[in-house]
Amino acid sequence: MKKKKLLYFMVLVVLFSLFMISCSEDSSTEPDDNDPLFTEFYGTPTINPSAIFTAEATDVTIRASISANPNLMDNGVNLVRVDGDNNVVEAICQLFDDGDLTNGDEILGDNVYSAIHSFNLASAGEIRLRVAATTLNGNDEIIDYSSVFLLTAVDNNSDADYIEVSTMQENIGDTFETNLDASDIETALEDTYNWITQQPGIENAEMRENGIMVEYENGIMGGIMVYQADEQGEIDTKGWNSSKRQDHHPIKVEYQTRGINNNIIVPKVTEEEDVIGNNNILIWAPFEAAFKTDMRPSLETIIENTEQEVNLVTMADAECTIASLYSLTDYGLIIFDSHGSEGKELGTAEEVTNWTFVQNYINLLLNRVSIWTNVKVGYNGGVAVRKDIFAIHAPFINSLPGTFQNALIFNGSCESTMNSDLKDAFLNKGAKTYFGFDKVVNTTFCKNVCDDIVQAIVVDFENTGDAFTAGQNDPQSPNALFEMYGSEELHYSMDLINGDFEYGNLTGWSRSGDGRVITQLAYMGPTQGSFMGIISTGLGYTTDSGSIYQSFRVPENDHQLSFKWNFLSEELMEWVGSQYQDYFKVAIIDNEGYESTILYKDVDEIAENYGPYLVSPDIEFDVGDVYATGWNTFSYDLNFYAGQIVTIKFTSGDVGDSAYDTAILLDEIKVGED
To answer: What is this structure's pTM?
Structure first.
């Protein structure tokens, strides 16, 4: 029963035409959590990809998470297109919660509805989309809508644009080198800027502290960024420091068609706790080999000394590509050790070739990324290194899938707070605190303040306000000011939080493999509230066995641990007594890294002691019938760890092979509560 057919979709199109064509955002009723007639959408639906080429059929995956509702109509969740006033223009397709990967759906009955729809848009632009959920009240239909989300279409002129942009970038680099042979860096850049403004195909150009930014007529952003080496051939600043600011010269009238409009984004106000969402830490250092002072080694040493369990990921030099940033929202603490410019761009190490240009063409057209001709000038002059690389912009952060879970961002690049573009993009995406510099910063000062922040936050468990010392200036010219924006209360929690998963996400928990939060699994719901956790040996698209873990301090006097669990497996009952023994394990890891298993259940023990019962066909995973134990409660006294920081880790594991899936439902994880 993996795939449901669209038996009634033509009828639905007619119904939407009759009942929805006049529905607007104002006419849809606000959901009431206590009213079963209404359906609540948890967040904005996701769309991937969010931009496609015109006149090319492209499969796009849409997912929407909604509240459990017994009155939801069969075939009642649908994607619709709306106009600028949110009037429904057309019904596009149905979304399914059937566990069928051909529909993009991973788990049957988890209230995450999915569809894979082939879009083929004739012209460039945006279409506005919403998901509509229809419930039945007697003979009346009640329609609730998600937030609006967009699908963008662009024309594919990648071959011609690559030739145009790469040729001009090369000419800009050649012109700068020629000018540098006869002058200093400042004069060479100014002469190059004057030359650029006279060239065809240029819409706009802007002098920067350490380079020139260019907007081409095709909408792609490019330019040149210059850094000067010291006597040892190393880069001691994260930008080149000019002794004077350059004025913006006007472009010839015949080449002026539009300017650059940088919209100011107002950070959202949230009522969530000021707790860093997970223990995943990323150090991202695309220019580590070039910088005089490396930030990563000392940071790794500091982080090793924390008493909490962390997942530290480091990427350096060529590893730091555009693709390496697509999972950025998975991290709770992110440290960028890179080049930057005016708080608007952040450099990567990915070189521009014909292939990478085509791969990032949509990102380029939508100004999510730009191209830098990255130039290293020798201590005594002359160009030592020159290559074209990509840089990311604020729209790239806006377009990332998911949201940050109260993340802390340390942007260790030059001028990272000079303008609000990147700062606001991160904060508006769910980050809570942002650190950066108002001017060109030297590598040693950047390393030192970053070490202080990480020591205070990760090891000493201070909040961002206590960790930050206002008024710190780089002692070297141009004396960049270290700045903090956002929450002054952000910190790692030493209490076990979100054990009931009522945040609606994994805030507080770090994940490896398949771990997520759901509202129900077919007819199985949480033991309380609206949400529960699930870990598995790899449901849907995920192939890795799952675990979630969280560090916390065990209370001195009230240290009883308890939680509820429900074991579901396809290995029951067919593979009882065999080598195929999927398991559920719970372990406590102390601050020295010693792991103690407090609960372990495999297929044989479940079959012998828990009376598993058949839950298929209501619940299906992949290849076999699913059996479940139902909800069980486990308690354990953590008195041995009283006053200590420990990590609790829940794991769903494979033994034998991964053909048959197992999942564990979790809820009401508590420590020190009656």
So the answer is: 0.86
